[in-house]
Structures are given as C-alpha cells and as structure tokens.
Amino acid sequence: MTKIREVVVASDPTNHDALVCRVGGSHFTVGGPDGVGRISSGPNPYDLLSASLAACTAMSIRFQARRQRLPLERLEVSVSFRHGALGERDSFARTLVLEGELDAHQRALLLEAANLCPVGKILGIGAAINTRLDATASGHSPSTQASYEDDLAQLPIPNITPD
C-alpha cells in the first residue's frame, strides 16, 4: 500500500482569512498576498520550497555522517531561490557549512549525500540546484531577499496579477 503525505492549507476566518498550513500537529501562517491588498506574514511558498530542500539536505548529510561515523560536529544548509530569466530554468543555490575534523574525502562524501537528497531530486526535475561547500555561516542580507511579489512578477502567467 502506498503511503501519502498530506499538508493542508486553509483560510482561517478567525484570523482575517490568513492562510494557515497544517502539517501533522504543526500549524503556521503562510505568507503572501491576502487578496485584499495586504501581505500576510509567514513564509511564502518559495520560502517553503527552499526550507524543504534545506531540511532534506541537512537530514541526508547528517544520516550519512552518522552512518559512516564521520566527525561532523555541526552543519548548516542555506538555500536561496532565483527565477530563471525568460527561457531559463529556475534555480536553487545551496550552501553547506560542515564543521568538524573532516578531511577532503569525508567532505566529498557529505557533498555527495547532499546531492542525493530526495527533495532535491524532485525539485531538480524543474529547477537547477547548485551546491557549494563553504567554511563560514551564510549571512545573507535581508535587504537582498526576494519578496513574494518579486516571485510572482517573474511568472509569465497572463491575466493574473499579485494582489
């Protein structure tokens, strides 16, 4: 029997019709246009895609490190999303910070584990995923982060405009 995963997103009439996502016992607001000209707080769908890729990558790396008994002390995965220009594929940039007494071969094994992440395989069908190792923490500037409106503006969907 095939198992399914279900995530429910529904409007919440008790919270100005904000979209709320339910995953198991967790609930959180989904950000983005609210239909009346405001932007709801919370991660937007592109943030959630990036978070899924980062989480799956981290789990894959951690699993491989434990399985191989590698001296990985801490890991950090940061993911950013970029819409491709007209005719180009969308892409994810994934940066890995691997801390611990790891040699070059061990780092290569963990990079390979990152690239075998199941969510990455699914997303890689429609988007490029570029991964690099970095010795330092991310440090992306909030001022350079794309908004959901930026994401929507990149989509070539006729007759649909963001709220």
UniProtKB/TrEMBL annotation:
<feature type="region of interest" description="Disordered">
    <location>
        <begin position="136"/>
        <end position="163"/>
    </location>
</feature>
<protein>
    <submittedName>
        <fullName>OsmC family protein</fullName>
    </submittedName>
</protein>
<feature type="compositionally biased region" description="Polar residues">
    <location>
        <begin position="138"/>
        <end position="147"/>
    </location>
</feature>
<dbReference type="InterPro" id="IPR036102">
    <property type="entry name" value="OsmC/Ohrsf"/>
</dbReference>
<dbReference type="InterPro" id="IPR003718">
    <property type="entry name" value="OsmC/Ohr_fam"/>
</dbReference>
<dbReference type="InterPro" id="IPR015946">
    <property type="entry name" value="KH_dom-like_a/b"/>
</dbReference>
<dbReference type="Pfam" id="PF02566">
    <property type="entry name" value="OsmC"/>
</dbReference>
